[in-house]
Amino acid sequence: MSPRTSSRTGETGAAVRDAASASVLPGIGLCAAITAVAMAAQAFEERVAGHPYVEALVLAILIGIAVRTVWTPDARFRTGIAFSAKQLLEVAVVLLGASLSLGAILASGPALLAGIVGTVVIGIAASIGICRVLGLPSRMAILVACGNAICGNSAIAAVAPVIGAQPKDIAAAIAFTAVLGVLMVLGLPLFVPLAGLSDNQYGVLAGLTVYAVPQVLAATVPVSLLSTQVGTLVKLVRVLMLGPVVVAFSLIAPRLPREPGTEGAGAKARPGLTKLVPWFILGFLALATARSLGLIPDTAVKPLTQLAGVLTVLSMAALGLGVDVRVLARVGGRVTLAVTASLAVLVAVSLGLIRGLGIG
């Protein structure tokens, strides 16, 4: 190849890269603007109330939906919005692995550990059953079940790309799960007098039922320091279930029935590892393992977790921009009922675990 030809090839490649970058930047910029507003609103909540009642992740979806309702982004924005909703979300899932350590499992004790795992499994199975009885699509049922049983919005965001869920289903599951998450924070302390729970028992209940770690803090701090410590520990162990659950659903995904707008759901003969387990799940598990082995220093965990949080909020803004609120309204009643019933089952199972293990 002559120098002139090589130079032209290099110029062409650079032009293609520049065009690709330009095509995603407007959409990413729009999502970033929504993210900034959502995070500023959360910071205001924290300044006024001490903790966020509605997290930036949820606000980003709601703002995105509001923008989409009054204005439909044209072709200039769509590539960047799609990139933010998929690729940036996958990177965020990988980074979340750095915040998890297997030490939390060892500290919790075998009986409680087994109980947490059992509660998550029962919660997912019961929730999927409830959703299917109510006529929700299989992928929506999985999203609601994982959000309910593990860690709310983060679980929904992590499972969604594995099963090829539609943006409207993701947004609906997160939106209604978020509403009940706030109600849980406000209403769960009532179980202390109503069910006669000790501070330790209440901490276990909060850790098993409240969706997000910040919400666990909000629900337990008003009760006692012991409740906060126990609730946080149980919640972190529960979050550790996210990796195995996502891997499990990556194996199940090819067998899910086809739904309009979803990626291919038919199982293929002997798919490779990267088809069974997407790259970002392998990355998530690799970072979690590295963290458990002490290969990721403590000083690096907070920045990585913060970056993962920002990318997740940005991707949720993208999902909101892709949602037609009229479609969301059509499924709202059934989703609300499904999430409510699933949460009631989770609370009942958790109370049964507390009594069954004789937790004092």
UniProtKB/TrEMBL annotation:
Its main location: membrane. This is Conserved hypothetical integral membrane protein. It comes from the Bacteria. It comes from Methylobacterium pseudosasicola. PANTHER family: INNER MEMBRANE PROTEIN YEIH-RELATED, UPF0324 INNER MEMBRANE PROTEIN YEIH. Pfam families: Cons_hypoth698. Belongs to the UPF0324 family. It is found in: Cell membrane. Keywords: Cell membrane, Membrane, Transmembrane, Transmembrane helix. GO terms for cellular component: plasma membrane. It is a multi-pass membrane protein. The keyword Membrane applies. InterPro entries: UPF0324_pro (IPR018383). The chain crosses the membrane at residues 21-44, 50-67, 88-106, 112-134, 141-164, 170-192, 204-225, 237-256, 276-297, 303-323, 335-354.
